[in-house]
Write a structure and sequence with these properties.
Elements: E1 13-14, E2 22-23, E3 30-37, E4 44-47, E5 50-51, E6 53-58, E7 61-66, E8 75-82, E9 93-97, E10 107-112, E11 119-123, E12 132-137, E13 142-148, E14 154-161, E15 169-172, E16 181-195, E17 201-212, E18 216-219, E19 228-233, E20 238-243, E21 246-251, E22 256-262, E23 271-276, E24 281-285, E25 297-300, E26 307-311, E27 320-325, E28 334-338, E29 350-353, E30 358-364, E31 373-378, E32 383-387, E33 399-402, E34 407-413, E35 422-427, E36 432-437, E37 446-449, E38 452-459, E39 467-473, E40 479-486, E41 490-494, E42 499-500, E43 505-512, E44 518-528, E45 535-544, E46 546-549, E47 552-555, E48 567-573, E49 579-586, E50 596-598, E51 603-604, E52 609-614, E53 624-632, E54 635-643
Length: 647
């Protein structure tokens, strides 16, 4: 990438996983250990964007204290690293707070997206703290953004055109503005689309590279604080690396496909690993820290490796490689694990059988046992294979979950904020993407009732009677309440405290104190750890400058054919100037039954009274109900009129 401005610190790279891998909801305070590259004194670990108290250990390790109040209930958290001043910031790693599952169940939901998607990924594209999805369409030359609601559902935010034949995607902040951008490979080029932070994107910037719409990896390879690019070119057997706008190709094996980054030799500099589909090998390119790489080391693996990711699956602080291997000259259909030695070399790979043509691979703790698992997209058998990890670098026999035809790419995230990892998949030769959600496991659920409040007409600068809203936790875990606020001309008091146990409820009393005449709106907002947070109640009130008293009149024992003595309604003007006023009886057919006069002469005076005198003149027996409507001052004030009500 070309420089976007001087940076004093490198872009930090956060390796998966952080340690511990996850935490049990309701547990004690703990220390979070992060490893990676580019850390400096002052680097800070973040917890869903909130800075944690962090200790600097080295350029490859920082530790942070996580308070017990942050893990009171099940929730998925995005952990990241920020440099001093906030930017540049690292990639994110999902950290699950929840309870262990005895089994993994995945429920599939399909969403319409582009045709022939070879790549799907998850990131927060609109800045609401909820994972979103991006999927690229090769045949339609576009990519689609689906924004998450936090309850496991998504909606299409928009579809954005790309130049011809887009291939794979990677996410990063390429201009250091704190908003997620996309890099998308094409034929001989990588396109960078800068995010606007609201789920939309600007146009493409082209970076010419000798490449063939292959997978893309990002990292700060020269430590200048600006993300660089790497992508593969199967036709020439090379991996192309772009640093400061200049591309360099490195010869690797035959038909390279997948590429990933990591610090494989613990020197604090990013390295590359490339899966060579045509030569049954991986190429390890050790980084020099200046944007260049040493001659690749060849690591043998099974025939036809396609996709490669990195993680530490045996908890020895050494990065490992996990490879989806469909086979090239022969059918393999394996997920292969190569445990790292910590010096840039790897042990002999061990293969585990999965479905036919595994093309996509992702790592995460899907059963919340604090041991990393692996999910694989099996294109030809239309399934997702899940291999549960034992924590020592070995895995159980794979489980299979039905997908639509041609699943070829996977992304993992906690899409319904319940503390358990979910999956999203894209498809070759299909116009849809799918989510694979785990059912909630000990999740708080916040329900507000009612969901809207309409306040009666209230005099400007006076307070209405309070109206109640009930907050109930209908979930099975403790609801942790972070804040309760009412906007603008509304205020609230509550009995909720900082948490609600399952089944418990509390009351929020909302008051309307208008400062302006007319219709006023606001929002009651509750922020908590439940899915869909924040929860809201819409507020509306009508404000007037007229202080009217009384608001009801009763005329008793008035004989038919007579007219009662008048009763008085006073109107006080609270405005700094006279306000127009008019009067009417509703229904209009009752106008003759309630004759009235007034002293207002079309205006209510400023900070003074005028009066309305109403009588009752019945023409028949029985009770009559009507309303005197006082129109002005910013609202419609209604005075109830009752003729001959029962005693």
């Amino acid at each position: 990438m070309a420089p976007c401005g001087a940076q004093t610190n490198p872009v930090p790279y956060l390796q998966q996983p952080v340690w511990p891998v996850g935490a049990v909801s309701g547990g004690p305070q703990f220390t979070l250990v992060a490893t990676g590259t580019g850390f400096v004194n002052g680097s800070t670990l973040t917890w869903n964007g909130t800075r944690l108290t962090t200790s600097y250990v080295s350029s490859t390790r920082i530790n942070a204290s996580v308070p017990a109040s942050y893990i009171t209930s099940s929730v998925g958290v995005l952990v990241g690293v920020q440099q001093p001043g906030g930017l540049p910031a690292s990639n994110g790693v999902t950290f699950e707070v929840g309870k262990s599952r005895t089994s993994v169940t995945l429920g599939r939901t399909d969403y319409t997206a582009g045709l022939d998607s070879a790549s799907i990924l998850t990131a927060d594209f609109n800045g609401d703290g909820i994972p979103d999805l991006a999927a690229v369409s090769n045949s339609q030359s576009n990519f689609t953004i689906l924004t998450g609601a936090g309850d496991g559902t998504f909606r299409v935010q928009g579809t954005f055109a790309t130049p011809s034949s887009p291939g794979y995607m990677a996410v990063g902040d390429f201009n250091n503005d704190g908003k997620a951008d996309l890099a998308i490979s094409g034929l001989g080029v990588v396109y960078v689309f800068l995010g606007n932070g609201d789920g939309t994107f600007g146009g493409a910037t082209d970076y010419t590279m000798q490449a063939d719409d292959g997978p893309v990896a990002v990292g700060d390879f020269n430590g200048d604080g600006i993300l660089d690019l790497a992508t593969t070119d199967p036709a020439t057997g090379t991996v192309a690396v772009m640093v400061n706008g200049l591309a360099t190709n490195y010869t690797v094996g035959s038909m390279p496909e997948g590429v990933t980054v990591g610090d494989f030799n613990h020197d604090g500099k990013l390295d590359l690993a490339v899966a060579n589909y045509g030569s049954a090998s991986l190429s390890i390119l050790t980084g020099n820290g200046d944007g260049t790489f040493k001659t690749p080391l060849t690591v043998a693996t099974t025939d036809g490796p396609w996709a490669v990711v990195t993680s530490d699956v045996n908890n020895d602080a050494k990065l490992d490689l996990l490879v989806a291997t469909p086979g090239y000259s022969q059918s393999e259909n394996q997920m292969v694990v190569l445990l790292g030695n910590g010096d840039g070399t790897f042990k002999t790979g061990v293969g585990y059988s999965v479905g036919s043509d595994p093309l996509g691979i992702v790592v995460g703790d899907f059963n919340s046992d604090r041991k990393l698992d692996v999910a694989v997209a099996d294109e030809a058998s239309n399934q997702v294979s899940l291999l549960l990890g034992k924590g020592d670098g070995t895995f159980q026999t794979s489980l299979s979950y039905a997908a639509a035809a041609g699943v070829d790419s996977l992304a993992a995230g906690d899409f319904n904020k319940d503390g358990s990892l979910d999956l999203a998949g894209s498809y070759y030769n299909s116009s849809s993407v799918s989510t694979f959600l785990q059912p909630s496991n000990g999740q708080a659920k916040a329900v507000l009732s009612p969901t809207s409040l309409l306040f009666p007409l209230t005099v400007v600068s006076y307070s209405s009677a309070s109206m109640p809203v009930t907050l109930t936790n209908t979930g099975t875990a403790t609801l942790s309440i972070q804040s309760i606020t009412a906007s603008d001309q509304f205020s609230q008091t509550n009995t909720c405290g900082s948490s609600l146990s399952p089944g418990a409820f509390c009351t929020i009393n909302v008051t309307f104190t208008p400062q302006h005449q007319g219709t006023q709106t606001g929002t009651l907002t509750v922020s908590d750890n439940a899915q869909g947070s924040p929860q809201t109640v819409s507020l509306q009130g009508q404000a007037t400058f007229f202080l009217v008293s009384p608001l009801s009149l009763k005329f008793k024992n008035v004989a038919v054919g007579t007219t009662s003595s008048p009763q008085t309604i006073s109107i006080y003007g609270e405005d700094g100037q006279p306000e127009k006023v008019s009067f009417s009886i509703s229904p209009s057919s009752d106008t003759s039954l309630f004759p009235y006069t007034n002293t207002c002469n079309g205006y209510v005076p400023s900070h003074a009274y005028c009066y309305v005198y109403v009588s009752y003149a019945p023409t028949g027996t029985g009770e009559v109900d009507a309303t005197l409507q006082i129109n002005g001052g910013g609202g419609l004030t209604k005075v109830s009129l009752k003729g001959n009500p029962p005693n």
